[in-house]
Specification:
Chain lengths: 240, 404
Amino acid sequence: MPEPLIDMQHLVKKFGDQTVLQDVNLAVMPGEIVGLIGPSGAGKSTVIKTTLGMEVADGGTAHVLQTQMPNRQLLGRIGYMAQDDALYDTLTGRENLTFFGNMKGVAKADLTAKIAHVAAVVDLTGDLDKRVSGYSGGMMRRLSLAIALLGDPELLILDEPTVGIDPALRRKIWAELANVRADGRGVLITTHVMDEAELTDKVALLLGGKIMAFDQPAALKKQYAVDTIEEVFLKAEGVD
Amino acid sequence: MRTLAIAKRVTTELLRDKRTLALMFVAPILILFLMKLIFSANSTTSVNIATVDLPSAVRTELNGIKHVDVVAKKDNSAAKKALKNQDVDAIIRKTSTNQYTVTYANTDATKTTMVKQAFKGALSANGIKQMRSTIKRLGGTVVKLTATVQQMQAAQKVAAAKAGMAASANATTGSAKTPAISVPKVKVTTSTKIKNKYVYGDKDTGFFDKIVPILMGFFVFFFVFLISGMALLKERTSGTLDRLLATPVRRSEIVFGYMLSYGGLALVQTIIIVLTTVYLMGVEIMGSLGAVMVINFLLAVVALAFGILMSTFARSEFQMMQFIPVIIVPQIFFSGIIPLESLAGWVQGIAYILPLKYAGDAMTQIIMYGKGLLGLSFDIGILLLFLVVLTFLNIRGLRRYRKV
């Protein structure tokens, strides 16, 4: 049995009087894509921030790569892509990649080759020396993903990576995630798009700071006696 | 080294932002140049004075004073009308012997002072003239008196001769010579020469020269504060700070990276501002130019740390601008442009927590009194203390965004 990449046990997070997460249990195993779905304000971003050590849990444990978070050194082994593109637009694509490569601690000798590799993955090779300010929205998303992929992280954390991009690009990103999975690396992905949730190995349904369900998509559909994850979501929310 | 990588990135971003660069380098020069034009103009104020019933002698004296023009008005109402129409700046009216009423428009304190001084000067000059003529007249009287005495003696002599007293006549002849009073030459030396020597500057040294060391520091502070604050703010609002903090970078490496790149920029800016002030504005520096640069650069780095710190309290560029009246403007009031000793004790206390006070102090000492850096270890020490504390707070402050 391999060790989990993310292992959250009874996680509690409060901001002042407000309890944002209560008793969250979540695990991401190597070679697994875990989808985190839930309405806005359910606490998805807080789960991600705690995983990255930007926030500290008020109760329970958050282990990432067998290390209690927060831990700074560990961040070099995690690839993170935020909801917003978070790029330096006066710099070129290559300069952005080089900068984040340096920050992640990618060895100087490997950096050029690794940049070429991730650029090819997201199909940006021809545009690397253009400034980001001249990029289209889709190109920015792809560059953002390339930065997350840089340095072959053991764990990818993607916060709504497919918001506002066209279906062709979305398919491409998922193809790349499948490659990551095939390498035996893990992915934690938040999404609003329910048919994307179908593509994951496991889905965690986060509602009001609690994990309502955490299982394979097929098992969840069976449990709720519905045909799609979207219906699972609606049923769990009690909208029906 | 991550610090260097961050510094390199920030510098590249800055160099591609031409407008910000222009603001940092050209704007201070432009402002200093404009100030020079404005403040050096105040030496040529001239005033127009209306006079009513003023003795013509006084009026002539008054008219003779540089930058003072006099118009005689026949009565008070005519003069008042001129004052109301802003044709004249003051009315001087003689009400009775040695009684004058002066009415000032008083819309410009400089002009009021000038009229006061001119009138005083004219009166005393006139007084001296009168005295001189009185003395002259007295002198004339003495001469006449002497003549009378001589005539009388001559008459006496004649009388004595008539009396036929030869022996006594001899004696009187001798005594008759004695009263020949020698009249001292009445000559009032009007050409009293005062030779002026200046420890700092020359006769053209004005208000601008006094405030220029402080203004120089102020501009360094202002521009570095604003731009460094904006930069980290942009990093935060665009989400790149979060992304940056999701890498194993140390918080201190981010702060030092920023300090390094903006420090380099501040160094160039300081050199430009100081050289402009000294050579283009023609400000005389008693101490060494190097010392001025060192103090200004130190101030720039403090401003940098300060700007970064303040930006963590701002949520947008507009909120950053709101710090200008709260943080920047008070600095200039307490920086020494207005002598601090003249303020109330508790007000003086405020100055001691503002970095510009220490820089302004040190700069004045170097530029006007020629002190060296060694003599300013207190001011330099305080500035360094500001720098260390602010840098520490910045590193600490980034904890808000990542807990390690």
